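Question (not urgent): is this output format expected?
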Amino acid sequence: MTKYISVGKILNFHGIKGEAKVGFSKDRQDFLCSLKSVFIEDNNSYTELKISNVRIAKNNAIIKFKGIDDINSILPYKGKVILVKESTIREGLKEGEYLIDELVGMEAFDTEGNKLGFIVGVSNNGANDLLSIKTNTKHICLVPFVEQLVPTVSLKENKVVINNIEGLLE
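Got this back:
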């Protein structure tokens, strides 16, 4: 079964020629501009929309889809999440990059092999990604997802190793 991942949301129409104003994650404009098509889910059915043009305007993308040439044709898509196949995302991942759903649920260990907790979420503070670690004491601590603090990520073993410097985790 094909898995789809969200890459943005159609916020509104843009102009009268069927363009869509699309919100997307920070620093993902190059990826969005490289797409040839996206999918819209409606009642467990996926409709492919081919992209004819993408441009960035302020913090949004303006996307023109093939065959959608007026405001009335784009309006039914307002508020819809745009998706791509997981395989499309995987092709663009560089070494050391992971999908959020791969990281969430992984166990966290210190460099001596002691279990610290597990990852419950991933966020971004504008400078870098942050791992939300639920510790053994049930606290949630944010750990910058940088190599100095998280030197090892093993998808195969479902674990991350954290360089637990003083004060990082309680």
